[in-house]
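Long-time lurker, first post.

We've been arguing in lab meeting about whether nicotinamide-adenine-dinucleotide would sit comfortably in this protein at all. Half the group thinks yes, half thinks no, and nobody has a model to point at. So I'm putting the question to the forum: if I give you the sequence and the SMILES, can you give me back a predicted structure of the complex? Inputs are below. Any interpretation is welcome too.
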Amino acid sequence: MTHETWLITGGAGYIGTHVADLFIADGKNVVLLDSLYQGLESRVIHLRKKHNQEIPFHIVDIRDYTAVENILKSQSFTGIVHTAALKAVGESVEKPNEYKEVNYTATVELLKLAQKYGVKKFLFSSTAAVYGSPDTMEPCRENGPLSPISPYGSTKLDAESKVTEFLNTPGNAGSSFRFFNVVGTASLELLDNSVENLVPIVLGKLNKGEAPVIFGIDYPTTDGTCVRDYVDVRDIAAAHLAAANATKPLPGIINIGTGRGASVREIINLVLKATSKSDTEVIEAPRRAGDPAFLCADVDLAAKEMGFRSKYSLEESIRSLF
Ligand SMILES: NC(=O)c1ccc[n+]([C@@H]2O[C@H](COP(=O)([O-])OP(=O)(O)OC[C@H]3O[C@@H](n4cnc5c(N)ncnc54)[C@H](O)[C@@H]3O)[C@@H](O)[C@H]2O)c1
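Top reply:
Settle the argument with this. Predicted structure of the protein with nicotinamide-adenine-dinucleotide, as tokens:
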């Protein structure tokens, strides 16, 4: 049993609650912070019931620096898992300033407060969106080209560089994790409620009796549809735990994916099969601007430096949703 206490921002979110779940199971105390912009209090209530403990939960906007400071000075924290963010690529084009405030400026302020209150570990939720739309069929490496094509990706890349400055301060530890496409759930109470990820989009369409849509069937991939790296949220949580418990310094930036690609058509077929709707019509629409043919993680660094490899297959991730 450790006596560590971790602050989890975005602590009522999809990934934040999965990290909290695993940290509590590992004997850590967690304090959750979320504005409930997209997070769900019902997830926190589920965790309280599951672990039979009163998990502190602050409904606070990460941009309310006084409120965040009050939390950090109220007790001593071992580390911060910083998942709070706005993450809708399309919306980021419409509201670039808000994305900058929440994803970049608030991260800078959180890092300053971490430094001020002696919080030594920081795990930042970054994204494969920092790679942009690579014109290659090779997996992305952490030290490869970076070229975000949305304000979402740019704000995360800018925040990463500030996290790196924090990590370079002697005594500090952690990493920026570049998550690829996150799927699956540890339980139905913690399901992803976002509007932009492929699996929830397909499920949403099916629930409304509508046909799922494939954008682009003429990509240079095996079946002509885009290929992405789908990593289970339980693996994402396990990567956080491995990093939190690491006894040696970690690379400042680590891809978290499976290293395997799956096509949009494969995903849709898996969802149709899981819902016994395999005869549903699938609409084939033209390509969308900015969608690369192939975006998958090179996962060697996570394996070598953190001993982390994803465990869940895509079939298991999709099955977990039902
Ligand atoms: N889910 C994915 O596929 C994926 C992929 C790559 C990166 N990420 C990153 O992982 C992190 C978590 O994503 P998620 O999928 O759990 O999304 P999520 O929306 O479920 O979680 C983010 C949480 O942050 C909270 N939040 C938003 N703005 C806030 C603010 N101003 N103050 C306080 N809280 C605020 C939301 O209410 C939400 O609960 C994000 O940083 C996201 O960019 C997610």
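For your lab meeting: The mean pLDDT is 96. The pocket of nicotinamide-adenine-dinucleotide is lined by residues 10, 12-16, 34-39, 61-63, 83-87, 102, 125, 127, 179, 181-182, 194, 197 (CB under 6 Å). Whichever side wins, do check it experimentally.
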